[in-house]
Write a structure and sequence with these properties.
It is a single chain. By secondary structure, this protein is α+β, with helices and mostly antiparallel strands. The chain contains 14 helices and 23 strands. The strands form 6 sheets. Strands 3, 7, 8, 9, 10, 11, 12, 13 and 16 form a 9-stranded mixed sheet that branches. The chain has a 5-stranded mixed sheet with strand order 20-19-21-22-23, sandwiched between helices. Helix 1 packs across helix 10. The chain is globular. The model has no long low-confidence stretch (mean pLDDT about 95). The site of 5'-O-(N-(L-cysteinyl)-sulfamoyl)adenosine has 19 residues, from strand 8, strand 13, strand 16 and helix 10.
Length: about 450
C-alpha cells in the first residue's frame, strides 16, 4: 500500500475522551472512530489488525478440529424464553420489536441459537463430538462502555460451542479449547494467563478466564508469579490426544491464578511469599463447561450407545476479538506509539523515502516495494512529499515492527537502513539484505 493513496487519518493531538493508552493510540493512529457510545467504525488500519486477529483465531480453531459457521446478530426472543434467559439477562440485552410486533434481540451470545440448530439436526452419539464456532458481532448494552474497544457495546467475539455425549468427552473439549487459546494468544504476541473464574450469566462449574496483565485492566487478579514463566512455544499438539490436552491444562492451571471473584486468601497464602502477586488484568477470553444446563431445558438430546436418549453435554468458549486490539496495545507500546507484534501487525514493514522526488531514492523505494510484495509481504510505502521527521513520527505511531529508510546519502554507499520499532536499533545494509531479513522474520511467524 502506498500511503499517498491510503486512508490513514492520524491525529496530532491526544483525544481528550481517551482515558487509557490503547484507546488514545487507536484514535490517534486512525484505527477507529466512535459512532456512538461504545460503538465504533473500524477505519482501514484498524480493520487490518482486526482481520489478522480473526485469521489467527480461525486457523487455531480449525487446527483443533472446530468447525466455522455463522449465526445472525438479530435473534428471536422465543428461544430465549425457552431457555429461561429472556428475563434474567436484564438490561444488558438490547431488545427490539419488529414491524409485526414480534420480540427480537441483538444477540449478546449464542447458546440458545446453537442449541436450537443442534437439536434440529443431531440425534445420535455417532455424530459427536461436535464443536461449532463463529466470529460475529455481539451487542451488550453495557452500563458503562469505556476504554474504546475494550468495553464496547457492539464488539466482535469468537464464540464456540461443544456438544459431547458425556462429561468426560465435554471436558476434553474444554481442555482442547484451553490449549487452542494458549496457542492463539501466543501467536498474537500476548501472554494470556488462564485463571479460575466465575460462571456469571453463562453458568457453569468449570470456567477459566484468560487474562493479559496490564495496569489498566478492569479485573483484579491474584497469582503465583511462576505462571508467567510458562510458555506454550511451538510444541506439537495432537488435539485428539485426551492425555496430552489434559496434561497441558494441568501444566497451565495448577499454580494459583484467580480473579477476585474466586480469590481464596487462605489458598493464596500457601504460595511462597516472594511469588505472590496481586495485579490487574484484561480478560481476553473465557471458557465454560456447563453440562446439560441448556440441553435439558431446550430438549437437545442424543441417543447414546445403548439407544437411550440423553441430554447432550455442552460448553461455550469465547475470545474477545475486538477487545484484543486494546489488550495488545496496552501490552506493547511506548511513548511514541504502538509496537505491533509481527503476528498481528497491519503491515509487515514501512518504507520511508527520505527524499521523495529524487530519482534515485524513488527508484530504490519502488524496487523495494515491488520485491517485498513479490515475496507475499505487505509493505506500507510512505511516498508522500513530507519532512522525514513527520514520516518517522507516523511510522512510530502506527507501530509497524520494521522500517526500511531510504535516502540519497545511503544509496551512494549502496545501503538502506533497517530499524526495529521495538528496540529502536538501526542497521545499514544493502536493500537485498533488508528484504531477506524481513522475509526471514515473517517466515518464522507463519505457523498458520
Ligand atoms: N458465550 C460465552 C462464551 S462463548 C460468553 O459470552 N463469554 S463471555 O461473556 O466471557 O465473553 C467472551 C469474551 O468476549 C470475554 O472474555 C471478553 O474478552 C469479550 N467481551 C465481553 N464483553 C465485552 C465487551 N463489552 N466489549 C468487548 N469485549 C467483550
Amino acid at each position: 500500500m502506498r500511503l499517498s493513496r491510503y486512508f490513514l487519518p492520524v491525529l496530532k493531538e491526544n483525544p481528550s475522551e481517551a482515558q487509557i493508552v490503547s484507546h488514545r493510540l487507536m484514535l490517534r493512529a486512525g484505527m477507529i472512530k466512535q459512532a456512538s457510545s461504545g460503538i465504533y467504525s473500524w477505519l482501514p488500519l484498524g480493520l487490518r489488525v482486526l482481520q489478522k486477529i480473526e485469521k489467527i483465531v480461525h486457523e487455531e480453531q480449525q487446527r483443533a478440529g472446530h468447525i466455522p459457521m455463522l449465526m445472525p446478530t438479530v435473534q428471536s426472543a422465543d428461544l430465549w424464553r425457552e431457555s429461561g434467559r429472556y428475563d434474567v439477562y436484564g438490561e444488558e440485552m438490547l431488545r427490539i420489536t419488529d414491524r409485526h410486533g414480534r420480540d427480537m434481540l441483538y444477540g449478546p451470545t449464542n447458546e440458545e441459537l446453537i442449541t436450537d440448530i443442534f437439536r434440529s439436526h443431531v440425534n445420535s452419539y455417532k455424530d459427536l463430538p461436535l464443536t461449532l464456532y463463529h466470529i460475529q458481532w455481539k451487542f451488550r448494552d453495557e452500563i458503562r462502555p469505556r476504554f474504546g474497544v475494550m468495553r464496547g457495546r457492539e464488539f466482535l467475539m469468537k464464540d464456540g460451542y461443544n456438544f459431547d455425549v458425556d462429561k468426560d468427552a465435554a471436558l476434553h473439549a474444554y481442555n482442547r479449547h484451553l490449549v487452542s487459546y494458549l496457542r492463539s494468544y501466543e501467536r498474537m504476541g500476548l501472554q494470556a494467563i488462564p485463571m479460575r473464574a466465575d460462571g456469571g450469566p453463562i453458568g457453569g462449574d468449570y470456567t477459566h478466564e484468560f487474562l493479559v496483565l496490564a495496569e489498566t485492566g478492569e479485573s483484579e487478579v491474584f497469582y503465583d508469579s511462576a505462571v508467567t514463566d510458562l510458555k506454550f512455544g511451538d510444541r506439537e499438539i495432537d488435539y485428539d490426544d485426551v492425555g496430552q490436552c489434559a496434561g497441558i491444562l494441568e501444566e497451565f492451571t495448577t499454580r494459583y491464578a484467580r480473579t477476585d471473584e474466586t480469590h481464596d486468601e487462605a489458598l493464596f497464602n500457601e504460595v511462597p511469599e516472594d511469588r505472590r502477586r496481586k495485579a490487574r488484568g484484561i480478560e481476553v477470553g473465557q471458557i465454560f463447561y456447563f453440562g446439560t444446563k441448556y440441553s435439558e431445558t431446550m430438549g437437545a438430546t442424543v441417543q447414546n450407545s445403548d439407544g437411550k436418549p440423553v441430554p447432550v453435554h455442552m460448553g461455550s468458549h469465547g475470545i474477545g476479538v475486538s477487545r484484543l486490539l486494546g489488550a495488545i496495545i496496552e501490552a506493547s507500546h511506548d511513548d511514541k506509539g504502538i509496537i505491533w507484534p509481527e503476528g498481528v501487525t497491519p503491515f509487515d514493514c514501512g518504507i520511508v523515502n527520505l527524499k521523495q522526488g529524487d530519482d534515485e531514492a524513488d527508484a530504490a523505494c519502488e524496487a523495494l516495494y515491488a520485491s517485498l510484495k513479490l515475496l507475499g509481504l505487505e509493505p506500507l510505502y510512505d511516498d508522500r512529499k513530507e519532512r522525514a521527521g513527520g514520516k518517522f513520527a507516523t511510522m512510530d505511531l502506527i507501530g509497524l515492527p520494521w522500517r526500511i529508510t531510504v535516502g540519497p546519502r545511503g544509496l551512494k554507499n549502496g545501503v538502506v537502513e533497517l530499524t526495529s520499532r521495538r528496540t529502536g536499533e538501526s542497521v545499514e545494509m544493502p536493500p537485498e539484505d533488508a528484504i531477506q531479513k524481513i522475509a526471514e522474520i515473517y517466515a518464522a511467524h507463519q505457523t498458520g
